[in-house]
Amino acid sequence: MYIVTAEEMYEIDRYAIEKGGIEGKVLMENAGSQVAQQIIQAYNTNRKLAIVVGSGNNGGDGFVIARYLAEYGYNVTVFQLVADHKIKGDAAFYKQLWLNTSDKLAHVTDSHQLKQRLVDFDMVIDAILGIGVSGAIREPIRSMIDVINHLPITKISVDIPSGLPANDGIEVDLAIQADQTYIIEAPKETVFCEDTSIYYGEWETVKIGVPQAAYFEHTSRQRWCKKNVRATFPKRNKYAHKGTNGRGLVIGGQLTMPGAIVLAARAALRSGAGLITVATVKENLPIVSSSCIEATYHLLPNLTDRLTDRDLEAFEQIDAIAVGMGVGRDESQLLSDLIEKLDKPLLIDADSLYQLKPLLETQLQHEAPIVITPHYGEMAMLTDTTVPKVKRSPFSISRQFAEKYQVYVVLKGRHTVITAPNGEQIISDQGNAGLAKGGTGDVLSGILLTMIMQHKELLPALANGCYLHGKSADYLVETDHTEMDLLATDVIEGLSQVFRTLS
Ligand SMILES: NC(=O)C1=CN([C@@H]2O[C@H](COP(=O)(O)OP(=O)(O)OC[C@H]3O[C@@H](n4cnc5c(N)ncnc54)[C@H](O)[C@@H]3O)[C@@H](O)[C@H]2O)[C@@H](O)CC1
Ligand SMILES: Nc1ncnc2c1ncn2[C@@H]1O[C@H](COP(=O)(O)OP(=O)(O)O)[C@@H](O)[C@H]1O
Ligand SMILES: [K+]
C-alpha cells in the first residue's frame, strides 16, 4: 500500500486522467460511490444523515455520496457551507445531479445556524475540506468544524478529516475529530504521525480506479504488509550451513548493562543468524555467556578504546556488525574504528548514536551500508531538534538525514519509518504498546542484524525485521501476554510463531 503527500496525490490523479484516460468526473463518481458503499455496509438506513460540503472536490465527493445514500433509502440532507459561486467544475456537476432528484439542500453560512440544524441528526459526513486545505482554517469554516466536533453524533470524514494537512511537518490548526475516515485511494502521511493519526479515528481506503503505474511513477513511500514480507523474505536453503546464514557481531553490554547485549544476541540467533559473536567486557562474560550459550565471545578491555590489530583480525570473518546496545555514552574511538577500519554493514543503535553525533561533522568513511535505529529522542538529539518536531515530521526529518549522510534510518515508534539513502521509505506499523518497555529496541537491533546478513537488498531487510518484531508482540498480546506484562525476552520467543505464518 502506497502512502502519499498531497502533491503526490494530485500528480497521481493527473496521471489517471491524462495517461489513464479516466475523466475527473468518473474518479469523483467512483470516490463518492465507494465511500457510500462503505457507509451502507457499516450503518443501518434508519439513521438521519447530514452531509456537510465545502467548496472543493471533497465537497463534490459529498454530493455523490448523498445521491447514492438517498437512493439506498437513507434520510439525507446536504448542508452547503459556502456560497453557490464557489462550487465549480465537477463538484458543481454533482451538485446539480443531487438537485435533480432531491430538494434537501440547505445553505448554512454561520456556525450558530449549523449547530441548530444539526441537532436532529444521528450522523454527519464531513466533506468540507480535503487535501487542498492550506494555511490556518478561515471563518466561518473554523467555527463550523468546532461546532461539529462538539456534537455527540457519529462523524465520518471523506478522504481526510477536514482541516488536517495531508503532509507531515505542518502544525495542526483545527480539524474534524472523526470516528471513521474513508480515505480515497492512498493514506496520506498524517495517518502515520503520532499527533495527527488520532484525528482519523478508524480508517479504511477506497479504490477509485487509479492505475498502479501512477503510484510507481509518483511516490516512493509504502506501508509494509504480510504480502510484502512474503514476497521478499529469503527462503532457507536446504543445503545451508551456519556460514551461509550470516556471521554477525554484536558489540555492547558494558558493566551496568549486560542485558542489552544478551537481548540483541539472542534475538539475532532466534531470527535465523548462523553465528553470533558477542564482543563485551570481561567482567560481564559470566552473566552474558550463561544467558546466551549459543553465541561465541570476544573480550574487550572496555567499549570505547581503539580496536587492536587482534580485534580487527578477529572481526574480518564477520558479515555484519551491530553496536551500541549498552555501550555507554562516553566518547568512542571504537565506533570510529568500526566505521573507518572495518568495511562491513554496520548497525548503530542506542548509546552509539550519541557517539556517532560528533562523527557526523566529518564525512563518514564507510563503503558498506550504515543503518541507524534511533527512537524519537535519539533522532531529536542527532538532528538538533525537539521530540515534538520529530513526531510531527517523521517522514521529512528521516528523509533529510538519510539523504544528507547516505545512511539507512529506522526511526522507531508506534509507526516505524524506514528510509533508504535515496529517500525511499517504508512504514512498519505492526506492534503495540507492550513494546514500550526497556530492551525491546535491543531485540529489534538483533533481528535487524540478521535480516541485513540474509537479504540482498537492505530496505526490505529492515522492513522485514521491523515486521517480525512488531508481529511477535502482536501475536503475544493476542495469546499468552498483555500489553502490560510483555517483556523484551518474550518478543524473542514470539518470533517462532511469526515465522510459522510466513511459510
Ligand atoms: N481528480 C481529483 O482531483 C479527485 C479529487 N477527489 C477529492 O478532492 C479532494 C481535493 O480537492 P480540492 O483540490 O478541490 O481540495 P479541497 O476539497 O480540499 O478544497 C480546497 C478548497 O478549500 C478551501 N480552503 C483551503 N484551505 C482553506 C482554509 N485554510 N480555510 C478555509 N477554506 C480553505 C479553498 O476554497 C480551496 O480552494 C480530495 O481530498 C478528494 O476528496 C476525489 O473526488 C477523487 C478525484
Ligand atoms: N506504543 C508502541 N506501539 C508499537 N511499537 C512500539 C511502541 N512503543 C515502542 N515500540 C517499539 O519498541 C521498540 C522500542 O525501542 P527503544 O525505545 O530503542 O527501546 P530500548 O532502547 O529500551 O530497547 C521500537 O522498535 C518501537 O518501534
Ligand atoms: K473531509
Automatic annotation (TrEMBL):
EC number from the UniProt entry: 4.2.1.136, 5.1.99.6
Record-listed K(+) binding positions: 58, 126, 162
YjeF C-terminal domain span: 225-502
Function: Catalyzes the dehydration of the S-form of NAD(P)HX at the expense of ADP, which is converted to AMP. Together with NAD(P)HX epimerase, which catalyzes the epimerization of the S- and R-forms, the enzyme allows the repair of both epimers of NAD(P)HX, a damaged form of NAD(P)H that is a result of enzymatic or heat-dependent hydration.
Keywords, in A-Z order: ATP-binding, Isomerase, Lyase, Metal-binding, Multifunctional enzyme, NAD, NADP, Nucleotide-binding, Potassium
GO molecular function term, any single one: ATP binding
Binding site for AMP: 412-416, 441
Protein name, as recorded: Bifunctional NAD(P)H-hydrate repair enzyme
